[in-house]
Structure of DNA mismatch repair protein MutS:
Amino acid sequence: MTSAQSAVTPMMAQYLEIKAGYPGALLFYRMGDFYELFFDDAVAAAEALDIALTKRGKHLGDDIPMCGVPVHSAEGYLLTLIRKGFRVAVCEQMESPEEARKRGAKSVVRREVVRLVTPGTLTEESLLEARRHNYLAAFARVRGEGALAWVDISTGSFHVMPLADIRLGPELARLAPSEVILAEGESADLSGIVTESGASSSELGRAAFDSAGGEKRLCDLFKVGTLDAFGTFTRPELGAMGAIVEYLEITQKGNLPLLQAPQREAQTRVMQIDAATRRNLEITHSMSGGKAGSLLGAVDRTVTACGGRLLERRLSSPSRVREIVQERLDSVAFAVEQARLSEALRSALRKVPDLDRALSRLGLDRGGPRDLAAIRNGLAQAEEIAGILRDQDLPSLLAAAAGDLSGHDALLDLLDRALVAEPPLLARDGGFIAPEYDTELDEARKLRDEGRGVIAAMQSEYQELTGIQSLKVKHNNVLGYFVEVTATHADKMLSAPLNETFKHRQTTANQVRFTTVPLSEMETRILNAGGRALEIEKRLYDSLKAAILDESAGVSQVARAMGELDLATALADLARGEDWCRPKVDDSRALEIEAGRHPVVEQALRRDGAPFIANDCHLGGESDIWLLTGPNMAGKSTFLRQNALIALLAQAGSFVPARKAHIGMVSQLFSRVGASDDLARGRSTFMVEMVETAAILNQADEHALVILDEIGRGTATYDGLSIAWATLEHLHGVNGSRALFATHYHELTNLSDKLERVENATVSVKEHDGEVIFLHEVRRGAADRSYGVQVAKLAGLPDAVVERARVVLDALEKGEREGGTAQKALIDDLPLFSATPAPPAPSPAVRTSGVEQRLADILPDELTPREALDLIYELKTLTQG
């Protein structure tokens, strides 16, 4: 013990010793029914949790700051701390105070850190989103090669893939992990990428990423002599997976979760989508950060947690393998055609609990009786669903899922016999084992319950003996069983002959408490029986948990199968309800969409009672690029996004919002739509636009789909026009990609005559009495102007500003036609930046006609047909007069 520690109590010395092992985490130090924090931890936690900061004792002459949270509600506080960037070391009491006192009167209860809580290692139901994965990832480098591994310990999924540094950002955007592990010394150049993905970063020593050590840790974890059965892995892949296992051993204190065999993924098998495109298209999160307003929010009709997570994975990683896409589309088509069967499945699936996460909690010894019941209920529902699907001619994917639902009769029968219908949350509460399952438990319960009946009989006996009908036999954790009477009867109980039977124990403000020898003896019998019953239930809980974990692989298969069934029937329900069609997906370059719609915008308009105008898109034949012109607010951005989302949905295995769709497999999806800056990194809106455009032009291949909106708008007109012009030529001649290119630079429309695969298209508008009406219809051809002044008027700019803009616009356009002379004269002659424009001329007085005066007095709903006819004749007379 240090000299600093010697000045404090033994308990505080123990705290400081444990805290020294976790300098980067807050220490939740168990003190009875509270977790307490001291010193700097207490100051930080009190501020983060908005709880009171107090003090306890002194250290080196100074007060020790202290705060605490109740153990029973600690999960909510943990979630708040994790979301605010903290890590928490949970330190539990490993023995009772009574056991500690056996070592000496001043012995401190032994405590140990049992878990380090970090963003990527959460398993509690209340700390996780049920329909989203919570990934922990690790990135490893070996001799210039890289690999990314990721795991969700709450479901057991485990994946790895080779990965170059340049692809780390896009893959983290796809996976959206909560935490990424990096090797010491590498976080300097990679932590920025991790932070941009929204994850927190953690460091491990470089030895944790050693491939040989990683292979040994993986073999130990899966209890195999070699990893050959799982596939062939590169050294970086072994290093990344090994680092994850090492990190889990550290944070879980050796109590490793149930992980599935690692699956190796390949980038070439899924559509590549970078982080900027994911943000622009709002695939799983809207711009505001939530699910509402995203593609996922619009299409999610799953009814199970595992189905919801599977949908998010499919939308985040659309397949590029035609056979896989066709299998998924076949499943949805079957569910669409078999509407009655599909609804029966969805009704049964609604009762399915989250098997994966219940299994994970049991594996980490953080579960309880309700997790046992969740496995039982899930297996029972699986049997019911298997019955619904029996004798059905199922497509291959659903047939495989149906086959995985059965074969767990023995485990289901065991859990059915062992558990009550509605178990308590905690095993220590008891009462979750069903009667007649265990003879020894039944005997202990009988003694316990009969003892309670005897207590009731003793109360009646004592009431008769004393003549005090208000006498009660009660129990608390301090006194055990006792006889209680009100203070008005105290003298009688303390006087002979009753004082020979009733021995005084305690006096409170209004009651006096006594005990008797028979009552104390009965208390001993009851407590022994109750404690024995709880011990037996705990033993039975452990045996049931072990039986489940022995079949964990099969239970995980059941969960995956029900997720597949849920997703197919959910997408079918969406297709029927929204009138979506099955897309044709092949390896061509086609992007032929008839009457396509934007799934999110269409739903938003429907809520407002407005229709969505469907539009066609035809790429991949004679034209690979559509150059789209038209005014702002006309729907160009919506058109761009909807076609990208239709391609994404098709390759995810979903029907699409269109009358007909033919999608040639898209290898990469790029989107540069919308304006934003990145002030934290010193980037203007134009700089962000150029960085994203550069990424597209440097990476897009001939099978990519690129959507670009207003390239070059953030700089001077001719600079912007030049950049847009060169970008379009590069996409056409170098990348060879399919593209939708929206612009306000009408000069670019002339390129359709020079670039053979470029075609002009425009969003139609109608002008009436100086007002612009957006038709939202896309047709072949070019727009004649941008209608910017009309849009400004619609936005509410003052009339004086709008009129002034019209004058300047007319003059500038005239100057352009005359070679710039009039334009120069305009700039010289007019105060273009005058702060106070001349007030508009007063409007002439408006004369009201006789017809208008007469109509103002009419209430149409009150007119009879004859009166209406007479009125028409009267109005005709007024107009002729």
